[in-house]
Amino acid sequence: MKYQLLGKSGLKVSQLCLGTMGFGTAAGWGADLAGSFSIMDKFAEAGGNFIDTANIYKLGESESIIGKYFSNDETDRDYFVLATKYSLKDNETNPNASGNNRKNLMRSVEGSLKRLGTDFIDLLYLHIWDDLTPIEEVMRGLDDLIRQGKVNYIAISDTPAWVVAKGNTYAELMGWSQFAALQVEYSLLQRSPERDLIPMASHYGMSLLPWAPLAGGALTGKYLKGDPGRIKPESKRLNENSVRITKEVMDIASKYGVAPSSVALAWVRQQYNKCIPIVGATKMDQLAENLQSLDLELEPAFLQRLNEVSQIELGFPGEFFQEAGVQKNNFGGFYDRIIKG
Question: For the whole model, what pTM was predicted?
Fold first, then answer.
């Protein structure tokens, strides 16, 4: 396992993040207490220290399981970088039991701290934008939590790029803490963040944490082999285009002699230099397969094949920039055409 700095901070995190949405059986599926403990043990043994959860995962059971794991005398809490989230509705007690507002933020964090059995959260995410709360209120509340010592760093998930940009700019103006990381759905089957979210993250030096980097298991090829799993037949992950991309992943995997998941995860990691895929696991063999992906570095020819088969339309202004000669790190053509005429 290698480590990288989270965003522009000095926090060292493993190059894979363990997603724990499947910890607990409250929803009728997932890893039980013993299984979850084994997965966290194995992840730590491999050098993994970055764990992702949320107050809403399995109705709080995910956080509770992690809290019980931390309560073990043999567990070094400070070894782990623990990320959790707030925003989504987690109970029916009051109208403010959801959303990005300060009241829900403070209430949610106190609940998470109790379930996790810890005095601090390493990384707190705004889980999803509610399109109601002023971003100024959000940034002030998050900075207050950092000043109180209850949160070390902040991040944001599933939010429009312009909102994230406004939040970081406002925080910079006020001398408050800025978002260190951005979490979005990103995979070979979901490349739309390349239009504005990833360029925005790059501009602010944010780490990118893709969720569903294997597209809910579709990119492992298991659905093409007859495993129905929990995916719906009408899912976009099973349409003609997705099947074509998955077959390309499987073909490249056969040439390397690795699992298709290794190819899909390697592609994600190689798209952005601050990329840390979130890999979920409810079974030990799933975790082992995900860890094997760290041994693979795709060569340029295979990267090109995957880029071409999964290519999306950038839309305006991305495609306009390309037509005008603007390329990554090269604005000469654009300058010649627009400035010089």
Answer: 0.93
Burial level of 38, CB count in 10 A (0-12/13-18/19+)? middle
Candidates 3, 57, 125, 153; catalytic one = 57
Q: Identify the pLDDT of residue 330.
A: 46
> Which residues in the chain land under pLDDT 70?
228-230, 326-341
Q: Domain boundaries in the chain?
A: 3-310, 314-341
Residue with tokens 């798209």: 271
Query: What pairs with residue 340 in β-bridges?
Result: none
What would be the CATH architecture of the domain defined by 3-310? Alpha-Beta Barrel (3.20)
Question: What long-range pairs does 252-255 form, CB within 8 A, spacing at least 24?
Answer: 252/298, 252/302, 252/305, 252/306, 255/302
Active site residue 57: yes
Distance CA 274, CA 269 (A): 8
Residue-wise pLDDT for 169-197, tens only, equals 999 999 999 999 999 999 999 999 999 99
